[in-house]
Design goal:
Elements: E1 2-5, H1 20-28, E2 32-36, H2 47-52, E3 56-58, H3 61-67, E4 70-72, E5 90-93, H4 101-110, E6 113-116, H5 131-148, E7 170-174, H6 178-189, E8 193-198, H7 201-210, E9 215-219, H8 222-231, E10 234-237, E11 263-266, E12 287-290, E13 293-296, H9 306-327, H10 329-335, H11 337-340, E14 343-346, E15 349-350, H12 353-359, E16 363-365, E17 370-372
Parallel strand pairs: 1-2, 1-4, 2-3, 4-5, 5-6, 7-8, 7-10, 8-9, 10-11, 11-13
Antiparallel strand pairs: 6-14, 12-13, 14-15, 16-17
Helix pairs in contact: 5-6, 9-10
C-alpha cells in the first residue's frame, strides 16, 4: 500500500503524523511511504531522517494526495485540501466533524473513508488516540491560563500560585476526564485552589482519592457550575461527548457574574466548545475578550509543543497505521469494534451516529449498508 504523510497546514500546527521509525516499519512491511518535504520540521525531524528510513520525499502535497491509498495526518483536512481527497482513499486523522459541518459535507462528497482518531476505541472502551493529546492539552490549559491571567495579557493580574500572605488563584475545571484531571493536577501542583466538576460520581470518587488536598470535587449541575465560575480566576472547559458537539455549560449571561479579567480556556473547542461565547482561535491570535472575560480557544493546543505532541501521538497511532496498511481498513474494522467506532464517513455516507445527529444527516451502518435516518 502507498501511505502518504502530508505536511500540516493548519495555522501554527507543528506536529507531524509519522516518525521516521514509522516509515521504517512500513517499508520493512513492503509498503511505500511518501512524506511531504518539511513535514517534520516543526517537530525537529529533518527530511533526511525520513529518507534514511526509506521514505520518498515529495515536493508538493498534491503528489501525495494523488498517489496515496492511506493518508495519515494530525489535523483535519483544510479547505484547500478538500479538492485533493479522492474517492476510495482512506484518511486517518483527527476530524472533530461535529464542530464543522462544511468539513463533514466535503468529506462526504469526496467519497473517501474517514477514520477519526477521536472516536476510535480500545478493548476497554477508552479513547487511546485522543488520550495523549488530551493529556497535553490539559496540562497546557493551566500553562496558558496562568500566562493570560497576567495583566499585560488583559487578565486579572493574578499569580496562579500566590505568595506567602496572598491567596492563590481559584481554578474551576469543568469535566473530570483526561483533560480535566491533567489540568487539575498541574493547577494544584502550582498551588492554586482547584474545583473539578463532573456528572460521574464514580469518577469524582476516584479523583477525590488521588488528588491533593487543594482539589475539591463537585457534582456538576447548573447551580454548581454557576457558583464555580463566579468564584474562579481561571475556568478550564474540559467536557467531552464522544463524536458529538460539546454541551454548552457556561452561558453568555454567566459571564456577568465572573470576575473582570478572569480567563476561560476552552479545551472543548475542537468539538464546538462548552462555553456559549467560545469561538475558535489560533496560536497566532489566541485570545479575545467578551464582557471583560478573556477567552482562550485555540483548536490545536498541542500543536504548539510539536515535538512532545508528535512523539506522544505517534506512539499510539503507529500500530493502527501498520494494521490499516497491511490489511485495509475494512478488514481491520470488521475484526476490531474499536476501530469500527473510528469510521465516521464512508463512501459518501455518515457512519457515526453522533455526527449524523448533529447535522440531521442520514446515518448508515457501513457494516450492512442499511441507512437509518439520523
Amino acid at each position: 500500500m502507498i501511505v502518504g504523510v502530508p505536511r500540516e497546514i493548519k495555522s501554527d500546527e507543528y506536529r507531524v503524523a509519522m516518525l521516521p521509525v514509522g516509515v521504517e516499519e512500513l517499508t520493512h512491511g513492503g509498503h511505500r511511504v511518501i512524506v511531504e518535504a518539511g513535514a517534520g520540521q516543526g517537530s525537529g525531524l529533518a527530511d533526511a531522517q525520513y529518507e534514511a528510513a526509506g521514505a520518498t520525499i515529495a515536493a508538493e502535497a498534491a503528489e501525495i494526495w494523488s498517489q496515496a491509498d492511506l493518508i495519515v495526518k494530525v489535523k483535519e483536512p483544510m479547505p484547500s485540501e478538500w479538492p485533493l481527497i479522492r474517492s476510495g482513499q482512506t484518511l486517518f486523522t483527527y476530524f472533530h466533524f461535529a464542530a464543522d459541518e462544511a468539513l463533514t459535507r466535503a468529506v462526504i462528497d469526496s467519497g473517501a473513508t474517514a477514520i477519526a482518531y477521536e472516536t476510535l476505541r480500545d478493548a476497554k472502551g477508552a479513547l487511546p488516540l485522543l488520550t495523549p493529546m488530551s493529556e497535553v492539552a490539559g496540562r497546557m490549559s493551566i500553562q496558558q491560563g496562568a500566562k493570560f491571567l497576567e495583566r499585560p495579557q488583559e487578565g486579572r493580574g493574578i499569580l496562579l500560585a500566590g505568595v506567602p500572605g496572598v491567596a492563590p488563584a481559584e481554578v474551576a475545571v469543568l469535566g473530570g476526564g483526561v483533560v480535566g484531571s491533567n489540568a487539575a493536577k498541574v493547577a494544584a501542583g502550582m498551588g492554586a485552589n482547584v474545583k473539578i466538576l463532573d456528572v460521574n460520581l464514580d469518577r469524582l470518587r476516584y479523583l477525590d482519592d488521588i488528588m491533593p488536598p487543594n482539589v475539591t470535587t463537585l457534582y456538576s449541575d447548573r447551580h454548581t457550575i454557576r457558583e464555580a465560575v463566579e468564584s474562579a480566576d481561571l475556568v478550564v472547559g474540559a467536557v467531552l461527548v464522544v463524536g458529538a458537539r460539546a454541551p454548552r455549560l457556561v452561558r453568555r449571561e454567566d459571564l456577568s457574574r465572573m470576575k473582570p479579567g478572569a480567563v476561560i480556556v476552552d479545551v472543548a473547542i475542537d468539538q464546538g466548545g462548552c462555553i456559549e461565547t467560545s469561538r475558535p482561535t489560533t496560536h497566532h491570535a489566541p485570545t479575545y475578550v467578551v464582557d471583560g472575560v478573556v477567552h482562550y480557544c485555540v483548536t490545536n493546543m498541542p500543536g504548539a509543543v510539536g515535538r512532545t505532541s508528535t512523539y506522544a501521538l505517534c506512539n499510539v497511532t503507529l500500530p493502527y497505521v501498520l494494521q490499516l496498511a497491511s490489511l485495509g481498513w475494512r478488514t481491520v474494522a470488521q475484526g476490531d469494534p474499536g476501530v469500527a467506532a473510528g469510521v465516521n464517513v464512508h463512501a459518501g455516507r455518515v457512519t457515526n451516529q453522533a455526527v449524523a445527529k448533529t447535522f440531521g444527516l442520514p446515518f448508515d451502518d457501513w457494516k450492512d449498508g442499511s441507512p437509518v435516518r439520523g
